[in-house]
Amino acid sequence: MRKRKMTPRSLFLMKKRGEKIAMLTAYDYPTADIQNSAGIDAILVGDTLGMVVLGYETTLPVTIDDVIRHAASVCRAQPRALVIGDMPFLSYTVSVADAVTNAGRLVKEAGVSAVKLEGGRAMLPVVRALVRASIPVMGHLGLTPQSILRFGGYKVQAKDKRAAERLLEAAKALEDAGCFAIVLEAIPATVAKVVTEALTIPTIGIGAGPDCDGQVLVTHDMLGIYDDFTPKFVKRYAEMRTLMKKSFEEYVEDVKSSRFPGPEHCYDGNGDA
Ligand code: KIV
Questions:
Q1: Which range of residues forms the domain containing residue 224?
Q2: Is 251 domain-assigned?
């Protein structure tokens, strides 16, 4: 029997039951399809798309049309997982009306069931407007890569007491504004534990220690495909880059030496492809 589709409420109930949430990023149909068969709870079509698929140095150049195109291909896999579309840089900060229009496009054109946006208190009017428009919102606090120009690099956040308190207050405010979950990125594990215990909505950690209600990784990092930069918090589950390179080298060798195609790959004039 096909399992029931995951919803924001399913994640909330998982937290209540003490069941951990497994989330990964995906940017295309086959990856979402494979993740679905592996039992992933939530799929984030992250703006990391810009770095690990489109080859940009940061996430800043990613457009709402980029996310829509990739999120639509993820949704065509019809995963059981909750599919969340990331709101890219400047798609929700220019005006609240703009944010609702862009999030609405992710729902209507791509088929996502929720959106994610980065930022704390300044984002409350946007979160409230999206929730009013019936679009579920996931927050994102700590290291928010769209603020790279302000941060001056990818640095661990909330390291001192004051910053940790501010993060906790922001998390509570996002929950009050209607967020159904919050990503906590690159913060001390002790701070993530306090935030997780203070909220009724789930926290999803990336570089935030083991006490978050769930974990997320960038798929291209955990598979060892993207290795321009590997943060400390990434666990490598495969060395796909090495495997792919070896396969491509073998193919080149086979073609050059006429070992490929063999008779089993050739048509003899009878039958179809
Ligand atoms: O864009 C993304 O993939 C993300 C994750 C790193 C949480 O925001």
A1: 8-239
A2: no
Has residue 79 been placed in a domain?
A: yes
Give pLDDT tens digits for 36-60. Answer: 999 999 999 999 999 999 999 999 9
Mutate to test the pocket of ligand 1, among 56, 183, 219 (most ligand atoms within 8 A of CB): 183
Residue 266 maps to a domain: no
Q: pTM of the entire structure?
A: 0.96
CB of 206 closer than 6 A to ligand 1?
yes
20: CATH? 3.20.20.60
Find out whether the beta carbon of 48 lies less than 6 Å from any atom of ligand 1.
yes
> Count of domains in the chain?
1
Structure tokens that stand for 188 in this block: 């001390």
User: Which tens digit of pLDDT belongs to each residue from 164-221?
Assistant: 999 999 999 999 999 999 999 999 999 999 999 999 999 999 999 999 999 999 999 9
Is the minimum distance from the CB of 47 to ligand 1 under 6 angstroms?
yes
Measure Cα distances from 7 to 22, 58, 72, 138, 243 in Å: 14, 30, 18, 12, 35
User: One of 19, 57, 165, 185 is an active-site residue; which one?
Assistant: 185
Ligand 1 contact, 218 CB (< 6 A): yes
The verdict on residue 190 lying in a domain is yes
